[in-house]
Amino acid sequence: MKPAPFEYYAPTSVSEVLELLNEHGYDAKILAGGQSLIPMMNFRLVQPAVLVDINKIPNLSYIKTHENGIRLGAMVRHTQAERDSLIKERVPLLHETMPQIATIQIRNRGTIGGSLAHADASAELVAVTTALEARFKIQNLEGERWVPASEFFVGLLMTSLEPEDMLVEIEIPDLPARSGWSLKEVARRPHDFALIGVAAVLTLDKKDRCQSAKLVYLSAGDGPLVAEEAAVLLQGQKISEDLIIAAAEKAATEEIDPGNDIHATADFRRHLANVLTRRALAEAYQRAKGGK
Amino acid sequence: MENTITVSVTVNGTPYQRSVDPRTLLSDFLRNDLELTGTHVGCEHGVCGACTVLLDGEAVRSCLLFAPQVDGHEIITVEGLGTLDNLHPLQEAFREAHALQCGFCTPGILTTLVPYLEENPNPTEEEIREAISGNLCRCTGYQHIIDAVKLAAEKTDP
Fold first, then answer.
1. Residue numbers in A near B131 (CB within 8 A)
2. Can you give the residue range of the structural domain that contains B136?
3. Which residue in the set B22, B112, B133 is minimally distant from A8, CB to CB?
4. The domain spanning residue B22 has which CATH number?
5. φ, ψ for residue B58 (rounded to 5)?
6. Are residues B76 and B137 in the same domain?
7. Are residues B10 and B56 in the same domain?
8. Where do you find CATH 3.30.43.10 in chain A?
9. Over the stretch B94-128, which tens digit does the pLDDT of each residue have?
10. Which residues in chain A are classed under CATH 3.30.465.10?
11. Which residue in chain B has the smallest CA separation from A109?
């Protein structure tokens, strides 16, 4: 269980990274926190010829406000985000999500940008940034572009990042007034991969009806799975227990596509999704009614 | 080796400099190059926690870092927690409460819990279980490990 040989670079600026990516293309891989990449290298599931370590670049670990939201440098580590007061105040869903991610040893090292670029469908951040309609800033030698989460995650461990691209920044907009949120998941042990999970965001109008709803599942398909039909059921309606039950049923039986494996059957995952969705919607609704 | 890189790192207060193949995992670097075999290697893919060390004071898995990445940084391994004559209070509590059977997971559990207890001096049993959820003990000795952590917490913060 040792990785294959590679050439190692530890550039100290983003422009140097972009030069290296441009030169080596598909042969190069960016090393951020390495908490998913290095296990895959140890198993030799991936054998990059060139490793570009971005840990020595200063100023990629900032958390700051920007207009109607916050912006995070790609190298913000999970524990840094977990302890950050700005995130707690402005993006409480992200704050609540952080401790549910992997074990403390992984969270001390893993980065938000790395988790998003890895795009594991069981990663909380993939579902949560989709639910929050985050945008990602991507740079290459040609320039930069902003990609919304809905277009960034394109499939199984796949993003819209090209070999010469680097994810440098994440923007998470503030939720509208009268919004509520929730993240519910079931894992066999705390901090282990979730068998299934759901991020819910609800916004109410002045008459307490659902103005918009977003349900995004993790471990329920090849990427973050958005239950669009369940959201349509909720939209424009007064939230009631019956409506929550109907929406959860719709998402869990008709929309998600969980797999069978040694840990759980697809049917069991659907059952969990149904229960978790009810809890998540109920919590999001309570929070939306009570303000923040 | 054609493709080597120099690593300068302080481990348990001692500065070291070695030339390594960049693919050398920190866990192997500590054990093979520095001959600090207290850090154990279990799964080598970030699940078992046996290889946990402190990188600039924070618990990390040394099998998920390459040696060149710790250049210029500070590492504490289990050897650096206490001395044979003067064990760390947590090590002392582990001995007193019989918190180890085969001892393979012990270095990783100690290095995980030392910074944890500094931040959370009075954890509940549930919190302790959660704090070591990234460390596997296959002797199924968790009960005594939890007793030891409670004991250490009581002694240092009565």
1. 104
2. 89-156
3. B22
4. 3.10.20.30
5. -110, 140
6. no
7. yes
8. 7-53
9. 999 999 999 999 999 999 999 999 999 999 999 99
10. 63-173
11. B60
| CB atoms A106 and B59 under 8 Å | no
pLDDT at B141: 77
Residues of chain A contacting B45 with CB distance shorter than 8 Å:
1, 39, 42-43
Please tell me the predicted confidence (pLDDT) of residue B3: 83
The mean pLDDT value for A93-116 works out to 97
Q: Which residues of A touch B69 (CB under 8 A)?
A: 10, 31, 34, 53, 55
pLDDT, chain B, mean = 95
Kindly report, residue by residue over A212-221, the tens digit of the pLDDT: 999 999 999 9
Looking at residues A256-265, what average pLDDT do you find? 94
What does the alpha-carbon distance between residue A270 and residue A257 come to, in Å, rounded to a whole number? 8
Helix axes B106-119, B89-96, angle to 10 degrees: 120
Give Cα separations from A268 to A25, A134, A246, A256 (angstroms): 42, 30, 18, 12
Assigned CATH for A179-289 = 3.30.390.50
Q: Do B46 and A3 touch (CB under 8 A)?
A: no
Residue B43 CB burial class (10 angstroms; 0-12, 13-18, ≥19): middle
pLDDT at B39: 98
Q: What is the CATH number of domain A7-53?
A: 3.30.43.10
Q: Order across the sheet with B52-55: list the strands.
A: B14-20, B5-11, B74-76, B52-55, B58-61
- Please give the pLDDT value at position B49: 97
Into how many domains does chain B fold? 2
A10 touches chain B (CB under 8 A): yes
ipTM of the complex: 0.96
Chain B residue with Cα closest to A48: B23
B56 and B106 both lie in a single domain:
no
Between chains, do B112 and A104 touch, taking CB under 8 Å as contact? yes
Task: Count the neighbouring beta carbons within 10 Å of the beta carbon of residue A68.
Answer: 11
Whether residue B97 sits in one domain with residue B40: no
Architecture of domain A63-173: 2-Layer Sandwich (3.30)
Average pLDDT taken over every residue of chain A: 97
Find out whether A254 and A171 touch, Cβ atoms under 8 Å. Answer: no
Q: Is residue B13 predicted with pLDDT exceeding 50?
A: yes
- Whether B1 shows a pLDDT value over 70: the answer reads no
